[in-house]
Structure formats: structure tokens, C-alpha cells
Write a structure and sequence with these properties.
Length: about 900
């Protein structure tokens, strides 16, 4: 390792002050809430006639909490209580439906209420009365999770629950459709909610009993699977055996059509925790256990299982006098003999051929990006692994000024990282102490988030990958203050699961136009002692310890040491835009502008890994002080930060300042990219056309006057420009063109796996997709760098930057599912970000870097990419298009002004 230290207090003394003027927005008081009788939506008549709870005279609860402010407080809205499940009762009706009754205090006052089961994807709405009572029916057999949410904005997040808030076009005040007609009701993510499991009676018999409810996809034939799981061994090896009952709940008019029919599901084997107790998941979306050697998360989807089997039923028999059918099943999945030590589970894939007879009703999409909608059976252990450890995030629902979403422990950060996609997570997590609206200290909930178990993106959150037992376990927190003193909270048992997604203090969702981290599962003690006000500015160490159990008796530990800073935010604008790729011989400018303009202490650290090798690193450290206008650059004679060779680099920038009143200010950013040789055999590209157009028909230059659900790829050629109107969407993917045949071995290996049969065709077209080896190779453990077992490593860096705002940043392979964005997003409300999102004539720089490594041939290749994006006015006549800049001397198409 070579360490380069550069220090300078000299700065460019330019009398220039940059100001961001943000107009405050006045909101009128919320209208009084009309008394509306709770109603059922989408329930068959013969079922909805069941009596509701008859309200009784009760004293009113405290006045309803409504988000309604006169001045936005960015993201730090008051902590809102979640639904109180101790006052919510589930009554199983035996016909597929469960009655959900909220007693007094179940909801904090009169609000729209949304209830959904991620197991069946069935949703229903009503509203609570002034005492917080509500009642409705949903399709959710015992063994289902049920999510209950309420709308503190009284109509913005749940359009058409208050019927007078929908305009003639059928849309609510935020421009969103009727919440039950929206297949992907992303605004619901921002509503405070909780999650609870409908109790069930465990079946008798040998082995581990289980009861799991689900719904076939895409048709939604609702079912319940109950039985026992055992492990058997014979001369051929070990196997996991399951048997029991499969019950279907159907449209009463069509029940008999399924009699004597059978049903089959595919059963997959996945690893949950490796031999070290570190969690694993088949799909790394918005987090990853695959890290670059510089420590950044590589998003990837690896849904191919280790092995699989078939769960087949006997012919179904109609249960007389009901809308149910029942059959028995048996299934056995062989365990590979060379399976590494760890904790594993069988997962039931609900995807089947249509059969008819669904109960119907509103069925929003459930997040497919963790387990592809599969349902987990009880976990089991192979060998003697270490105790399983869950990744606990802290303040995952709180974005800092630079876009970082919460913080992980120092221990977990070595093996997993969050990818929020707006901005690369900084290891320096900074939060404000005082609310700008009230002038009072902000209360932060110091309880763990579990992003690897369940989250929502813009969907309904997935069924948790581990069925937690709540209440169980305990949580203890020690806060070490800047003065060296400490506060201790707990221990207190975990009581329930809750979720919440960041929104503005006015109740506006932030980034629901594209993939983003939303509705992350949080486990709560319900103990108000864990709502903490930081007493002073400075550096805090939070030690969180505890454990939680699952319903099968397994215990999972979590926590560790979290580092965070309480400060007023400094906005860091670097001299080089984040995610900019470089060529060998380039120098990286460490200059920054700090907003507001103050003489902050600046530290810039750069680590370059030549050939991505940690043993061949070059480290630079630049320190100094900004001038009184917040401008910093090293002295002219300072040593340059030279990109000495091909590889990957990461940049950390920290700004600190204490004002005359003793108030601490701080800002921090992190980003990374690649360094490529000008003579690299690879040329980096985007992709051609829209993602809905077959690759053989997609064009590099085109006009596409469409605003459907498809997305325009960033331009194929570096230097081209993508023009788009407000209703469209852009999508990121970096591919490579091989000019010397260096990818031939990888193409042959991937083709022979018969997994990605289009790889050769893509390569022939000059857009080879970068992936982390073949899917069959990457089923249970994800290597951090190439090895003999996993020789081919391909992934890409991408960054989209609007000057002053970070729009999209991620590292991924070609399997990333939702790396796109729309143009009304608020980009985590970074400083200077307006409430309208992008506006006509806004410009974005689109950067990319490609990495391909072949350990079998000791080969490392890199390529870099850049293009431009321009927002068109709404009245533009042509629509979205990709062209080179200007018209060119030979004439031809002209995309328009830049």
C-alpha cells in the first residue's frame, strides 16, 4: 500500500457565493373529516353481509394527528404511531376471508385505513372513526401476514378512500389513481403501518409443523398448506421431506370445477445463512452481500436455486357446504452431498397455470425482488455453522442530506451494504438535531430495520423470508454521547413488526417513480424509551444488542456498533461529479464547494485498486480548509491524485465546521467508479432503444413518442444525448463491446450453462451483458472477487448526476430489475431539490464504468462511458429520442437544443 498525503489551507479566493433559494409552500388547514360508515370493497355479497362491530359510546381519543404544515421540514416529519395490534383482532371465517376488527385506539384517530395481506395480495380499504375503530374483510387464511396502514394526510396517500377527494378523472389530490385500482400503489409505502401474523393451529405429527398461506400467481387462487417437515437419510444421501394438507378457497360458484383436479408447485432450496452465520438471499436488490473490493454493494438477482423438487397434490375433494377443496401432498427434495455448512430453507414457488375459480378482488403486486414471491418453509441446518445473525439497520427510514439511508453496524458493513440507488451510502451518517418547523429536538426511533427480510420498493412488501415470532427476544441500546457519557435503554422484548417509508413533512412520497428502498420491515418493542432525542451535537456511538426468534424456535442475533453524527447539514458539491469514470493518467480534482458557504475543514480520501487488487492499492489523503465562501481546492503545487493504472477507485469527502455559536455542521459523501486504459479491448455502451423493444429491432438513434410503462435505455453510444418528456422514464444498463475476443471464453461458459441463451446474440450486437458468472455458479454463495470456482466476474458502475443533485448511483450486474427513474422524483430531498422534481431544460450527466475479470486467464479489463440527458418541455412535438449532439456536417437527424 502506498499512502499519499496532501495538505493545503490555500484555496481559490474567488468572491463568489452560490445561493439556493427554496420557496416555502403554504398548505391550508385540512378540511374536516366527514363521518362515513365503514364499508367493504370487492367482497362477494354472501360474505359481506356478516355483521360489523356495532360502535359503542366511548370517550374520544386525543385529536387526530394530521400531517399539515405551513413550511416543509424536508424529511423529518414527526414520528407517527403505527397501528396498535394489541387492539386489532383477527377472526377466521373459514371461507378464505378473515375479519380484521380494530377496537378503540387501534388507529390514532379518524383516518383512511388500508389493509392487505402480502401472502394473498388481497387489499381492502375503510376508515377508522374518531376513536380509531374500523372493521373490514380480507382474503387471508391463518398463516398469512396482514399489513394495516393508515393515511395521516387524510387522502393524499390513499385516494378515493375519502370519496370526495377524487376528481373527474378518478384520481386523488396527488394525481394517483384509486388506491384499490392501482396494481402498484406506491404511495401506500409512505403510510405508517404494522404487520402481524394471523394465528394458526399447528398440525400434529412427526417433524417440524408448519402452516403457510399463499395465492397462485398470476391468477390468485388462494390456498393454505399445512403439514410437517422431516429430514431423512439413506444410502443415497439426505433429503428434506414434507407432507400434509393443501386447501383451496374458491369462488363459491366455481368450486366444483376444481374437484378431482390436482395442483403442483415447484419447491426450491436456498441458503439463508452461510457457515459464518452471515445472511444470504437469492436476490440482492437495494442491498447486497456481494461487494466490490472497494467495499461497494453489487446489486444482482440470482433466483436459480441450489436444487429443486415438485410438490404435487392428490385430486382435490370438495368440502361439503363450503367454497373449499382439500387434498394431501408429499414432496421430497434431495440435499446435495457437497452442500456447505449453513442454514437453509425450502421455498414454495406459487407460480402455476391458470385454473379459474379465484375469489377475485383487489390484488396489488407484491414485491418480487427478494424471493420472487416464493414462500419459505421452516429453516433447517446443514453441518455445524455459527449461529445465524440478522443484518440490523438503524434509522433506515431517515435519509441524510447526501441521500444516505441510515447506517449499518461496523461489523455488518464488512459483508453487506445498502444500495439506496439515489446516492452511494456514505460511512458517515449525519442527522439533524432540531426540527426546522418546530424548533424542538427531533425524536428518532432507535430500533432495528431488517432490509434482507422484507421491503416494498413500490410494491406491497414481500412475505418476510423468516417468519418471526412476536413478541420474542429483546433489545438493548447504549448511546455513547460526544461528552463520553452514555444512556442505556432496555432490555425490552420485541413486540411487533412495523414499517414506514420516508416522505416530506407535507406527506409527499419522495422517489416512487422508480426503484427505491421502501416499507422496510422494522421490529419494535413499542417502548417509548427507544424514541430518543440527541441532547447535543457531535459524534455518537450506538451499541445495539439483542435477538429475536422465529415461530419454529430458532434464535437470530443482531446489532453491533453504529456510528452516526448529529449536526446541521453541509451540502458538498465536488469539483468532479460523483461516479465520473477516469482514464489511466488522469488526475482527480479533490476540490469542493460547501453550502452554505463556511470555512469548513475538508478531508478527501481516495483509494485506487489497480486491477481491482486490494494488495495493489494507492491511497491519497487531501486535507485543508475552505475559504469563507465555502470553496476549497489544494494549492497548485500540491501533489496530484494520479490514476496510475486500470482498476476501481472510491472517494470519501468529509466537511466539518463549528460556527461561532458552537453549533456543529457536517457533510459527507462517498462514490466510486473505474479507471480504464485508452487502449482497452472493451468499449462501454448503454443499450439501444426501449426495454420493450426486442434487441434485434432496437436502434441506436430513434424517436419514440410514447409514455407507456416501458423505459428508454441510456444511449448506446458514449457522447449521445437522450431527450425525454416528463411522462417517460429512463433506465440504466452498461454493456461492453469486445474488440479483441477477450470475452470468448466467458461467452462459451455462459452459453453452455443454458441459462442465458441470448448472451452470444447480445455480444454479436456489441452489447455483452456483464454478469457475476453464470447463474448456476452463483446459487448459494457470492464471492467478493474471482476465484478458480467462479472465474468470470462482470459488473458495472452507473451514475446520473444533475448538477447539484445526485439522481441515480449504483453498482450492479445485468440482472438488476428496476434501475430506472421518472422525472417527478425528489431524489431524497437533497439540499436545493425542488418539490417539482426535474423541470424542462434540466440537464443530467450519465456516467458508466464496466468491469470484467477472468481469474482463469489472470485478466482484468475496464471500460468507461458517458452521455447526456435533457428534459423536454411537455409540448415538445417529437417525444423521447436519442441522437448525437447537433446535426453534423453531413446533415441527418437533429435531436434539438442541449
Amino acid at each position: 500500500m502506498r499512502l499519499r498525503l496532501l495538505s493545503s489551507s490555500n484555496v481559490l479566493r474567488i468572491p463568489l457565493v452560490t445561493c439556493f433559494l427554496i420557496a416555502a409552500c403554504d398548505l391550508s388547514p385540512a378540511p374536516p373529516i366527514p363521518p362515513i360508515t365503514p364499508t367493504f370493497h370487492g367482497i362477494p355479497a354472501d360474505i359481506s353481509e356478516s355483521p360489523l362491530i356495532t360502535p359503542t359510546e366511548e370517550p374520544d381519543l386525543p385529536q387526530t394527528t394530521v400531517l399539515n404544515t405551513t413550511r416543509p421540514d424536508d424529511l423529518y416529519q414527526p414520528y407517527l404511531p403505527s397501528p396498535d395490534f394489541s387492539k386489532i383482532k383477527f377472526t377466521w371465517l373459514g371461507n378464505g376471508y378473515t375479519r380484521v376488527d380494530g377496537a378503540v385506539g387501534a388507529i390514532p384517530g379518524a383516518h383512511p385505513v388500508y389493509v392487505v395481506s402480502p401472502n394473498t395480495a388481497y387489499a381492502a380499504t375503510t376508515h377508522s372513526d374518531t376513536n380509531g375503530r374500523f372493521s373490514l374483510l380480507i382474503v387471508a387464511p391463518p398463516g398469512s401476514w396482514v399489513i394495516v396502514k393508515y393515511d395521516p394526510t387524510n387522502g393524499f396517500l390513499m385516494p378515493d378512500v375519502w370519496f370526495n377527494l377524487v376528481d373527474d378523472s378518478g384520481r386523488g389530490p396527488g394525481g394517483y389513481p384509486h388506491v384499490l385500482e392501482d396494481s402498484r400503489p406506491s404511495v401506500i409505502n409512505a403510510a405508517p403501518g404494522g404487520m402481524s401474523l394471523i394465528p394458526f393451529v399447528a398440525p400434529k405429527g412427526d417433524g417440524v409443523p408448519f402452516v403457510i398461506a399463499g395465492s397462485t400467481f398470476p391468477e390468485h387462487l388462494d390456498f393454505q398448506i399445512s403439514g410437517n417437515m422431516t429430514k431423512s437419510e439413506d444410502q443415497l444421501g439426505e433429503s428434506i421431506d414434507i407432507e400434509g394438507l393443501l386447501t383451496l378457497y374458491t369462488d363459491p360458484k366455481l368450486t366444483e370445477t376444481l374437484e378431482e383436479k390436482t395442483l403442483s408447485f415447484t419447491v426450491h432450496l436456498y441458503q439463508l445463512f452461510n457457515s459464518d452465520g452471515v445472511p444470504r438471499t437469492p436476490e440482492n436488490q437495494f442491498f447486497s452481500t456481494t461487494l466490490t473490493n472497494t467495499g461497494l454493494p453489487i446489486e444482482n438477482r440470482r433466483p436459480t436455486s441450489i436444487t429443486k423438487g415438485i410438490l404435487s397434490s392428490t385430486p382435490f375433494t370438495h368440502i361439503s357446504g363450503s367454497n373449499s377443496l382439500r387434498a394431501t401432498f408429499k414432496s421430497s427434495v434431495e440435499i446435495p452431498k457437497d452442500l456447505p455448512d449453513g442454514k437453509y430453507a425450502l421455498w414454495i414457488d406459487p407460480s402455476t397455470e391458470p385454473t379459474g375459480a379465484s375469489l377475485g378482488g383487489p390484488r396489488p403486486e407484491v414485491n418480487p425482488l427478494i424471493a420472487s414471491r416464493a414462500l419459505s418453509l421452516p429453516p433447517f441446518t446443514i453441518g455445524t455453522p455459527q449461529n445465524p445473525r440478522l443484518v440490523w439497520g438503524l434509522l433506515t427510514d431517515v435519509p441524510s442530506a447526501d441521500g444516505t439511508r441510515g447506517v449499518l453496524t461496523e461489523e455488518d458493513a464488512r459483508t453487506v451494504q445498502i444500495s439506496n440507488r439515489i446516492a452511494t451510502q456514505s460511512p458517515y451518517f449525519i442527522i439533524p438535531r432540531i426540527s426546522k418547523e418546530t424548533g424542538e429536538p427531533i425524536r428518532y426511533r432507535l430500533e432495528p430495520y431488517l432490509p434482507m427480510l422484507a421491503h416494498g420498493d413500490r410494491y406491497i412488501p414481500n412475505v418476510p423470508t423468516i417468519t418471526l415470532k412476536l413478541p420474542s427476544g429483546s433489545l438493548s441500546v447504549e448511546i455513547v454521547r460526544p461528552d463520553g457519557g452514555s444512556d442505556i435503554i432496555g432490555p425490552s422484548p420485541f413486540s411487533k413488526a412495523v414499517s414506514r417509508t420516508p416522505m416530506t413533512s407535507e406527506g409527499i412520497p419522495l422517489d416512487d417513480g422508480g426503484g427505491h428502498l421502501a416499507d422496510v420491515l422494522q421490529i419494535s418493542t413499542l417502548n417509548d424509551d427507544f424514541s430518543y432525542e440527541f441532547p447535543s451535537y457531535g459524534k455518537y456511538k450506538i451499541r445495539m444488542t439483542g435477538s429475536v426468534e422465529d415461530i419454529y424456535g430458532n434464535t437470530y442475533t443482531g446489532g453491533g456498533t453504529y456510528l452516526l453524527f448529529v449536526a446541521k447539514p453541509l451540502d458538498i458539491e465536488p469539483a468532479i461529479l460523483p461516479m465520473t469514470p477516469l482514464q489511466v493518467g488522469n488526475t482527480l480534482n479533490p476540490g469542493v464547494t460547501v453550502l452554505p458557504g463556511v470555512p469548513a475543514d475538508i478531508e478527501v480520501r481516495v483509494t485506487l485498486l489497480i486491477n481491482s487488487d486490494p494488495e495493489n492499492s494507492v491511497d491519497y489523503a487531501v486535507t485543508g480548509k475552505a475559504n469563507r465562501f465555502g470553496l476549497f481546492t489544494p494549492a497548485y503545487e500540491s501533489q496530484r491524485i494520479l490514476m496510475e493504472g486500470e482498476g476501481e477507485f472510491v472517494v470519501d469527502t468529509i466537511a466539518r465546521y463549528t460556527d461561532p455559536d458552537g453549533i456543529y455542521w457536517m457533510g459527507a459523501t462517498r462514490w466510486g467508479s473505474v479507471v480504464a486504459s485508452p487502449t482497452s479491448p472493451l468499449i462501454a455502451h448503454g443499450r439501444r432503444g426501449r426495454d420493450s423493444v426486442p434487441v434485434s429491432k432496437a436502434k441506436s438513434w430513434f424517436i419514440s413518442d410514447r409514455t407507456d410503462d416501458s423505459h428508454v435505455w441510456i444511449p448506446y453510444h458514449s457522447g449521445d444525448i437522450l431527450w425525454q418528456r416528463d411522462g417517460d422514464a429512463a433506465r440504466i444498463s452498461i454493456t461492453v463491446q469486445d474488440t479483441q475476443g477477450v470475452l470468448d471464453a466467458a461467452i462459451s461458459a455462459i452459453e453452455s450453462s443454458n441459462v442465458e441463451s441470448s448472451t452470444k446474440r447480445h455480444a454479436t450486437l456489441g452489447q455483452f451483458p456483464l454478469t457475476l458468472g453464470s447463474r448456476e455458479e452463483f446459487n448459494s454463495s457470492y464471492p467478493r472477487f474471482p476465484s478458480e470456482e467462479y472465474p468470470y466476474i462482470g459488473y458495472w458502475y452507473a451514475g446520473v448526476q444533475r448538477p447539484g443533485e445526485r439522481v441515480r448511483e449504483l453498482v450492479s450486474d445485468d440482472t438488476s430489475a428496476s434501475a430506472y427513474w421518472r422525472f417527478g422524483e425528489l431524489y431524497a430531498m437533497q439540499p436545493g431539490m425542488g418539490i417539482e422534481g426535474d423541470l424542462p431544460n434540466d440537464v443530467k450527466f450519465q456516467f458508466g464504468g464496466a468491469v470484467f475479470r477472468d481469474s482463469a486467464q489472470n485478466m482484468n479489463h475496464y471500460a468507461i462511458y458517458s452521455s447526456l440527458w435533457v428534459q423536454l418541455p411537455d409540448n415538445d412535438r417529437l417525444g423521447s429520442r436519442v441522437f448525437p449532439p447537433f446535426q453534423g456536417a453531413a446533415g441527418g437527424p437533429n435531436g434539438g437544443p442541449i
